[in-house]
Amino acid sequence: MRLHTLILIVASALGAASVQVTAAPGTETPIEHLIVVIGENISFDCLFATYEAPAGNKVANLLSRGIVDKQGQPGPRFAEALQRKANVRERFAITPPTDGVFATLPQPGTTYAKGLPS
Predict the structure, then answer these.
(1) For 97, which of 18, 67, 87, 104 could close a Cys bridge (C-beta 3.0–4.6 Å)?
(2) 93-110 pLDDT per residue, tens
(3) What distance in Å separates the CA atoms of residue 48 and residue 61, rounded to the nearest whole number?
């Protein structure tokens, strides 16, 4: 039950002669809220890498940083996103030494996605 409906019911019950109710502010579209649920191992960049924010708004993504262009191809600052290979050793290290960069990134796995190859 909306607040203005509740006010009218209470005012009627109290015998109020007139009640002024102001409408809630409208939105530009029928959408009032957007909730984005991102599954495990899916990053913001996978979903919004080339999203362009509306005029007057900003988003920090791969497109806005110049890492990719609007088509998702390498942009002028693509080298900043190179994925480096870790030099694997016998002991775990939080920041292992790197051993070059990937020429091409490994294909993401779809092991648990229904209907897709693993």
Answers:
(1) 87
(2) 888 888 888 877 666 555
(3) 7
